[in-house]
Amino acid sequence: MKQWLVAAVLVAGMATRVEAQTAMQTGEHETMAHTPAKPSTSLSLTIDDKTTTLTLDDLKALPQRTLTVKNGHTGAEETYSGVAVGDLLAKLGFAFDNASAKRTYHSYVRAEGTDGYWVLYSASELTPTLRETESLIATGVDGKPLGEEGAFKIVVAGERRPARWVRNLQSLTVVTLP
């Protein structure tokens, strides 16, 4: 049953991607407006049914990285600072190494914002040893706090538009299928 549900969600995600590509081609993405949301103030990470809640100070105490990406909505280059998703997941018990490769390939990560918007990533998309693209739990942009986008935002390089970047990020949940 879980596998069927995941397949359905992934198919729905592909349909959304097609809609997003159509919007890009027709220019509709330029008029998109965000619905105001409650700013995120903490980040809950759930791995193997164990939840850890982190604050902005907790994330800032971890090794920081920067990631420069082109925002498909605005066309502007933005430089985000924060913690690599893979580093954070590894620190909390979801390792990305040869011994856990099967677990990585059979897992997905659900990222959800305070407005209820959520997206899925396969765990291997966020694995620095498998992909050249980087992913970040951003805590700042262009040297400033994220502002109305909350304390946390997931940003993934290589996306043509930021449809899977979740602002006001409040939770990451890792699910492993058999």
Please, could you describe this protein's structure?
By secondary structure, the chain is an alpha+beta fold. The chain has one domain (about 40-175): Alpha-Beta Complex (Sulfite Oxidase, Chain A, domain 2). It is built from 4 helices and 11 strands. Strands 3, 4, 7, 8, 9 and 10 form a 6-stranded antiparallel β-sheet that branches. The longest helix has 25 residues, at about 1-25.
- What is the class in the CATH system? Alpha Beta
Helical percent range? 10-25%
Structural class: alpha+beta
- Counted beta strands: 11
Q: Please name the fourth-level CATH homologous superfamily.
A: Oxidoreductase, molybdopterin-binding domain
CATH architecture: Alpha-Beta Complex
What is the number of independent domains? 1
> Any idea what the radius of gyration is?
16 Å
Largest sheet: 6 strands, antiparallel
Task: Based on the model shown, name its key terms.
alpha+beta; Sulfite Oxidase, Chain A, domain 2; 4 helices; about 180 residues; about 25% helix; five-stranded mixed beta sheet; single chain
